Amino acid sequence: MADPWQECMDYAVTLRQSKGPSRKKRNEMKVIPKDSPVDLVTAMDQKVEEMLLSSIKEKYPSHGEKSALTNNPTWIIDPIDGTTNFVHRFPFVAVSIGFAVNIKI
């Protein structure tokens, strides 16, 4: 039996490839301390998250995002996982996109 959520997972891979940050875009490096001086967020974090959520809402309007984990399909996004590395131009970063249904990832 095919996984009914495989389409969503395939879409997550497509999103990462088309909307994720690139090395060329690192000029958007306005860095803002989040909760502490070592917890950083960049303008690129915000831009990538905005693009990802907008694309998801367009394709799956009934799905939620991580601010409220419920039994409904929910996307969990870290637009730049490794922001400190990104800020310091280290290549060890990722776009993390998770998908949960019934509060199970």
From TrEMBL:
<keyword id="KW-0460">Magnesium</keyword>
<dbReference type="GO" id="GO:0006020">
    <property type="term" value="P:inositol metabolic process"/>
</dbReference>
<dbReference type="GO" id="GO:0046872">
    <property type="term" value="F:metal ion binding"/>
</dbReference>
<dbReference type="GO" id="GO:0007165">
    <property type="term" value="P:signal transduction"/>
</dbReference>
<dbReference type="Pfam" id="PF00459">
    <property type="entry name" value="Inositol_P"/>
</dbReference>
<keyword id="KW-0479">Metal-binding</keyword>
<comment type="similarity">
    <text>Belongs to the inositol monophosphatase superfamily.</text>
</comment>
<feature type="binding site">
    <location>
        <position position="80"/>
    </location>
    <ligand>
        <name>Mg(2+)</name>
    </ligand>
</feature>
<dbReference type="InterPro" id="IPR020583">
    <property type="entry name" value="Inositol_monoP_metal-BS"/>
</dbReference>
<dbReference type="InterPro" id="IPR000760">
    <property type="entry name" value="Inositol_monophosphatase-like"/>
</dbReference>
<feature type="binding site">
    <location>
        <position position="78"/>
    </location>
    <ligand>
        <name>Mg(2+)</name>
    </ligand>
</feature>
<feature type="binding site">
    <location>
        <position position="81"/>
    </location>
    <ligand>
        <name>Mg(2+)</name>
    </ligand>
</feature>
<protein>
    <recommendedName>
        <fullName>Lithium-sensitive myo-inositol monophosphatase A1</fullName>
    </recommendedName>
</protein>
<dbReference type="GO" id="GO:0008934">
    <property type="term" value="F:inositol monophosphate 1-phosphatase activity"/>
</dbReference>
